[in-house]
Design a protein that fits this description.
The protein has helices at 2-14, 31-40, 86-95, 113-118, and strands at 17-23, 49-50, 53-54, 62-68, 100-106, 130-132, 138-140, 158-160. The protein is α/β, with parallel strands linked by helices. The strands form three sheets. The chain has a four-stranded mixed β-sheet with strand order 1-4-5-8, with helices on one face. The chain has a two-stranded antiparallel sheet with strand order 2-3. The protein has a two-stranded antiparallel ribbon with strand order 6-7. A hairpin with a 2-residue loop joins strand 2 and strand 3. The chain starts with a helix and ends with a strand. Bound molecules: flavin mononucleotide (FMN). Flavin mononucleotide is lined by residues 23-27, 68-71, 109-110, 114.
Length: 161
Protein backbone atom coordinates (compact mmCIF):
# COMPACT_ATOMS: atom_id res chain seq x y z
CA UNK A 1 0.00 0.00 0.00
CA UNK A 2 2.66 2.53 0.94
CA UNK A 3 4.86 1.42 -1.95
CA UNK A 4 2.06 2.34 -4.37
CA UNK A 5 1.53 5.66 -2.63
CA UNK A 6 5.27 6.34 -2.82
CA UNK A 7 5.26 5.63 -6.55
CA UNK A 8 2.43 8.11 -7.17
CA UNK A 9 4.15 10.69 -5.01
CA UNK A 10 7.42 10.28 -6.95
CA UNK A 11 5.54 10.92 -10.19
CA UNK A 12 4.40 14.24 -8.79
CA UNK A 13 7.81 15.16 -7.46
CA UNK A 14 9.32 14.62 -10.92
CA UNK A 15 6.74 16.83 -12.65
CA UNK A 16 6.92 20.59 -13.26
CA UNK A 17 3.24 20.82 -14.15
CA UNK A 18 0.46 18.53 -13.07
CA UNK A 19 -2.42 17.92 -15.49
CA UNK A 20 -5.59 16.48 -13.98
CA UNK A 21 -8.62 15.27 -15.93
CA UNK A 22 -11.69 15.49 -13.72
CA UNK A 23 -15.23 14.44 -14.64
CA UNK A 24 -17.87 15.92 -12.38
CA UNK A 25 -19.66 13.16 -10.52
CA UNK A 26 -22.56 14.10 -8.27
CA UNK A 27 -21.43 17.73 -8.17
CA UNK A 28 -17.96 16.75 -6.99
CA UNK A 29 -14.95 14.76 -8.15
CA UNK A 30 -15.00 11.12 -9.21
CA UNK A 31 -14.25 8.34 -6.74
CA UNK A 32 -11.18 7.44 -8.78
CA UNK A 33 -9.70 10.92 -8.52
CA UNK A 34 -10.49 10.98 -4.80
CA UNK A 35 -8.67 7.65 -4.39
CA UNK A 36 -5.59 9.16 -6.11
CA UNK A 37 -5.75 12.25 -3.89
CA UNK A 38 -5.89 10.03 -0.81
CA UNK A 39 -2.65 8.38 -1.95
CA UNK A 40 -0.68 11.55 -2.63
CA UNK A 41 -1.85 13.91 0.13
CA UNK A 42 0.25 12.60 3.01
CA UNK A 43 1.04 14.35 6.28
CA UNK A 44 4.75 14.75 6.82
CA UNK A 45 5.52 14.05 3.15
CA UNK A 46 3.52 16.19 0.73
CA UNK A 47 1.71 18.08 3.51
CA UNK A 48 4.24 20.21 5.37
CA UNK A 49 3.51 23.60 6.87
CA UNK A 50 5.39 26.33 8.61
CA UNK A 51 3.91 29.65 9.80
CA UNK A 52 4.26 31.03 6.24
CA UNK A 53 2.02 28.34 4.76
CA UNK A 54 2.51 25.11 2.80
CA UNK A 55 6.17 24.15 2.48
CA UNK A 56 5.84 20.64 1.07
CA UNK A 57 7.96 19.41 -1.83
CA UNK A 58 5.15 20.08 -4.33
CA UNK A 59 4.85 23.77 -3.41
CA UNK A 60 5.33 26.07 -6.39
CA UNK A 61 4.53 23.54 -9.11
CA UNK A 62 1.87 24.38 -11.66
CA UNK A 63 -1.45 22.61 -11.97
CA UNK A 64 -3.84 22.41 -14.92
CA UNK A 65 -7.24 20.90 -14.24
CA UNK A 66 -9.53 20.04 -17.14
CA UNK A 67 -13.01 19.16 -16.01
CA UNK A 68 -15.97 17.76 -17.91
CA UNK A 69 -19.48 18.30 -16.70
CA UNK A 70 -22.92 17.33 -17.87
CA UNK A 71 -24.25 20.76 -16.96
CA UNK A 72 -22.83 24.22 -16.36
CA UNK A 73 -21.80 25.83 -13.09
CA UNK A 74 -20.24 29.09 -14.15
CA UNK A 75 -19.53 31.78 -11.60
CA UNK A 76 -22.38 34.24 -11.32
CA UNK A 77 -25.05 31.77 -12.45
CA UNK A 78 -27.68 30.24 -10.15
CA UNK A 79 -26.00 26.84 -10.39
CA UNK A 80 -22.50 27.98 -9.40
CA UNK A 81 -23.35 27.14 -5.80
CA UNK A 82 -23.63 23.45 -6.70
CA UNK A 83 -20.03 23.19 -7.86
CA UNK A 84 -18.22 21.14 -5.21
CA UNK A 85 -15.61 20.06 -7.73
CA UNK A 86 -13.41 23.12 -8.41
CA UNK A 87 -13.59 24.49 -4.84
CA UNK A 88 -12.61 21.12 -3.40
CA UNK A 89 -9.77 20.59 -5.87
CA UNK A 90 -8.44 24.10 -5.24
CA UNK A 91 -8.59 23.51 -1.50
CA UNK A 92 -6.94 20.11 -1.36
CA UNK A 93 -4.24 21.03 -3.89
CA UNK A 94 -3.43 24.22 -1.99
CA UNK A 95 -3.01 22.00 1.05
CA UNK A 96 0.02 20.42 -0.64
CA UNK A 97 1.24 23.78 -1.92
CA UNK A 98 -0.24 23.71 -5.42
CA UNK A 99 -1.74 27.17 -5.48
CA UNK A 100 -0.84 27.97 -9.10
CA UNK A 101 -3.89 26.29 -10.62
CA UNK A 102 -5.68 26.85 -13.93
CA UNK A 103 -9.09 25.30 -14.52
CA UNK A 104 -10.62 24.67 -17.94
CA UNK A 105 -14.21 23.48 -17.82
CA UNK A 106 -15.82 21.53 -20.65
CA UNK A 107 -19.46 21.99 -19.77
CA UNK A 108 -22.88 20.96 -21.05
CA UNK A 109 -21.48 17.60 -22.10
CA UNK A 110 -24.58 15.54 -21.35
CA UNK A 111 -28.24 16.12 -22.08
CA UNK A 112 -30.71 15.26 -19.37
CA UNK A 113 -30.93 16.30 -15.76
CA UNK A 114 -27.48 17.86 -15.54
CA UNK A 115 -28.10 20.18 -18.46
CA UNK A 116 -31.51 21.05 -17.15
CA UNK A 117 -30.08 21.94 -13.79
CA UNK A 118 -27.41 24.00 -15.48
CA UNK A 119 -29.86 26.08 -17.46
CA UNK A 120 -28.83 24.77 -20.87
CA UNK A 121 -30.81 26.02 -23.82
CA UNK A 122 -31.25 22.49 -25.08
CA UNK A 123 -34.00 20.90 -23.07
CA UNK A 124 -34.26 17.80 -25.20
CA UNK A 125 -34.05 14.44 -23.49
CA UNK A 126 -34.88 16.24 -20.29
CA UNK A 127 -36.66 13.41 -18.52
CA UNK A 128 -39.71 15.60 -18.27
CA UNK A 129 -38.08 18.03 -15.84
CA UNK A 130 -38.14 21.10 -18.08
CA UNK A 131 -37.76 22.34 -21.61
CA UNK A 132 -36.21 25.19 -23.52
CA UNK A 133 -38.43 27.91 -24.89
CA UNK A 134 -38.03 29.56 -28.31
CA UNK A 135 -35.71 32.26 -27.02
CA UNK A 136 -33.25 29.64 -25.93
CA UNK A 137 -33.91 30.17 -22.27
CA UNK A 138 -34.88 27.36 -20.01
CA UNK A 139 -37.72 27.24 -17.57
CA UNK A 140 -37.54 24.45 -15.03
CA UNK A 141 -40.41 23.81 -12.71
CA UNK A 142 -40.23 21.68 -9.60
CA UNK A 143 -39.29 18.14 -10.44
CA UNK A 144 -38.91 14.91 -8.54
CA UNK A 145 -35.58 16.02 -7.11
CA UNK A 146 -37.06 19.15 -5.63
CA UNK A 147 -35.35 21.65 -7.93
CA UNK A 148 -37.32 24.80 -8.34
CA UNK A 149 -37.37 27.22 -11.21
CA UNK A 150 -34.04 27.99 -12.78
CA UNK A 151 -33.83 30.22 -15.81
CA UNK A 152 -30.57 30.32 -17.71
CA UNK A 153 -28.89 31.39 -20.91
CA UNK A 154 -27.10 29.19 -23.34
CA UNK A 155 -23.56 28.71 -22.11
CA UNK A 156 -20.42 28.27 -24.16
CA UNK A 157 -19.12 24.74 -23.92
CA UNK A 158 -15.73 25.74 -22.64
CA UNK A 159 -14.61 28.37 -20.22
CA UNK A 160 -11.41 29.00 -18.38
CA UNK A 161 -10.69 30.44 -14.92
C1 LIG B 1 -21.99 8.93 -11.83
C2 LIG B 1 -22.11 10.21 -12.59
C3 LIG B 1 -22.45 11.37 -11.90
C4 LIG B 1 -22.53 12.59 -12.59
N1 LIG B 1 -22.83 13.71 -11.89
C5 LIG B 1 -22.92 14.89 -12.55
C6 LIG B 1 -23.21 16.09 -11.85
O1 LIG B 1 -23.38 16.13 -10.64
N2 LIG B 1 -23.27 17.24 -12.56
C7 LIG B 1 -23.05 17.28 -13.90
O2 LIG B 1 -23.12 18.36 -14.48
N3 LIG B 1 -22.76 16.16 -14.60
C8 LIG B 1 -22.69 14.97 -13.95
N4 LIG B 1 -22.40 13.83 -14.65
C9 LIG B 1 -22.10 13.93 -16.07
C10 LIG B 1 -20.59 14.00 -16.26
O3 LIG B 1 -19.98 15.04 -15.53
C11 LIG B 1 -20.28 14.16 -17.73
O4 LIG B 1 -20.73 13.03 -18.40
C12 LIG B 1 -18.84 14.38 -17.93
O5 LIG B 1 -18.63 14.65 -19.28
C13 LIG B 1 -18.01 13.21 -17.43
O6 LIG B 1 -17.52 12.41 -18.46
P1 LIG B 1 -17.74 10.79 -18.44
O7 LIG B 1 -19.20 10.57 -18.62
O8 LIG B 1 -16.90 10.31 -19.56
O9 LIG B 1 -17.24 10.30 -17.12
C14 LIG B 1 -22.30 12.63 -13.98
C15 LIG B 1 -21.96 11.45 -14.67
C16 LIG B 1 -21.87 10.26 -13.99
C17 LIG B 1 -21.50 9.01 -14.75
Amino acid sequence: MLAFSNTLEEELLAADTMVIGAPMHNFAISALLKAWIDQVVRGGRTVLFNPNGPQGPLAGKKELVITSRGGSYRAGTPTAQYDYQEPYLRHIMAFVGLTDATFIHAENQKPGAWRILAGSSDGSNSRGCGRANRSGRLAVTANQNGWRQIAGKQEPRFHRK
